[in-house]
Amino acid sequence: MISIIASDMDGTLLNNEMVVSDFNANAIRQAQQRGVHFIVSTGRRYSEAQPLLAAQGITAPLITLNGAEVYDASGKMLDMVPITKSVARTIFHTLNSQGYYFEVVATDGIYSNSKAKRIEQIAHLLTNLNPDTSFKVAVTLASARLELMDINYVEHYNDLLDDPKMHIMKIIAFSQAGPAKLKPLSTELLAKHSSIKITSSSASNIEINNVNAQKGIAVERYANMLNTPMSNVMAIGDNNNDVSMLKLAGVSYAMGNATTEVKQLAQRNTDTNVNDGVGKAILEVLAQQ
């Protein structure tokens, strides 16, 4: 009997227009009406994720920043697992010395040290999601979208470490060369720091968190709060940063657009994110109980 459903957001619950479809929203509501707890587990910040649920009238707990933060349905923070500042400082040095563009997610928002690079990364994301969109058009769209996003620009990331009230929750490094460059970088960082976990939400990035800030760990903590065994938890995802929760869940679904690793790991497959794969998986499970 499934009591908790945990779903990733990008590439999973969201379609390529970055919204929750009516079909997915209705399936979530059906689950909630039957007493099943629905929780979103995402790499996004709370302020980026919650409005997407609210647009469909959905109220649910949120695991954000890959498990670094956990919020209840009312928006109250239940848990926070930052990267230590000494480790963050060393990671900043490694990334800067090797010429990587990266962004820092802190307790009060996302930080970038280059507006041009920020626009470039969003443009690449848009062209990946919509291959028919030219990069030139994507840059224009990204520039307009930036005005709607809560981005803080700083000259030096180390300045963030000098603020005693600031916590570093996640570091995201980018490379359009993909795994060819990012995999060796991950290996190097992990060899230096046993206190971090590295995942990814696309082929062109790596996401660095505290080793205890993982979706699977956070979902298990949430299940424990409800006295629910992980055998009664269902997880749905599409990418590397979903692996930890797919491994721990009693029932796991891979999206039709998931990576090969996720498809091999998950027990079941569902449709793609543009074809309401989350909603179909939810209804399938509800029909079985």
In words, what does this structure look like?
An eight-stranded mixed beta sheet has the order 5-4-3-2-1-12-13-14, with helices on both faces. α2 (22-33) packs parallel to α12. The mean pLDDT is 92. The radius of gyration is 18 Å and the shape is globular. The chain is of the alpha/beta class and 289 residues long. The chain is built from twelve helices and 14 strands.
Outline the secondary-structure elements.
Blueprint: E1 4-7, H1 9-13, H2 22-33, E2 37-41, H3 46-54, E3 62-64, E4 69-71, E5 77-80, H4 85-97, E6 101-106, E7 109-112, H5 115-129, H6 135-146, E8 151-153, H7 158-161, E9 168-174, H8 179-192, E10 196-199, E11 205-210, H9 215-225, E12 233-237, H10 243-248, E13 251-254, H11 260-265, E14 268-269, H12 277-287
Parallel strand pairs: 1-2, 1-12, 2-3, 7-8, 12-13, 13-14
Antiparallel strand pairs: 3-4, 4-5, 6-7, 6-9, 9-11, 10-11
Helix pairs in contact: 2-12, 5-6
